[in-house]
Amino acid sequence: MYQQQKATRKLLHKHPVIFQKTLSWGMDYYLNERLYAKDKRLKKDYDLNRIFSEQVVCLTFIHRREKLEEFYHQILEEFGSVVEVHLFENLYSPGWYWFQIHDKKATKDQAIRTLQQQYGVSDYQLTVFGDEINDIKMFKIADRAIAVSNAKGALMEVATQFIGTNEEDSVIKFIMKDHDSRRNQEQKLERIVFD
User: Fold this and answer.
1) Residue 107's closest CA among 89, 134, 129?
2) Which of 14, 104, 119, 150 stands 20 to 30 A from 7 (CA)?
């Protein structure tokens, strides 16, 4: 198991978050957030040929909706059969939209399925958390699909459970409470077995 975890970490570091320059406050917000988190994948690169010679998993453009909408429709029309696209307002920097382009094989749901198979946990209960429309496919494969209360409407429609906002640390509170509940259930079962 340790070797698999090490390989996964190595794979994540192999796929850097590359940027050339920031062109909007929305991009500044994201970059500063990554710098504050000391994201080791962050890499500045001006050579587009070199960038696109690597395996690109996702392209994200951050700007105002009107600046991205036409581009979104062009990509969807021309490449919709091979890419998945999302255009959504960032919950944490209102007014700024994210336009994401993924290869159809590079989605959260497929990444989860791959990891489940790799680690032999496909039969375990899958719990996921989300807040945006790019989480919908992931929600559809989960046993428990938990949306934060400030999530987008389309995601709320496929959620199986709801918690408070992410600003209230609702995800970690849910995980801690769920963990404690499961541990208590296991202890009760042990008492029954040994009594």
Assistant:
1) 134
2) 104
CB 102 within 8 A of CB 84: yes
What SS3 class is residue 147? strand
130: exposed, middle or buried (C-beta count within 10 Å: 0-12, 13-18, 19+)? buried
Question: What does the pLDDT look like over 62-109, one tens digit per residue?
Answer: 899 999 999 999 999 999 998 899 999 988 888 999 999 988 888 899
What is the Cα–Cα distance from 106 to 58, expressed in whole angstroms?
A: 8
Of 1, 35, 36, give the one whose Cα is nearest residue 19. Answer: 35
The residue written with tokens 């640390």 in the block is 169
Question: Tokens in use for 150?
Answer: 């400030």
Cα torsion angle, 102, 141, 30, 27, sign: positive
CB under 8 Å to 20, separation ≥6 — which residues?
44, 45, 46, 48
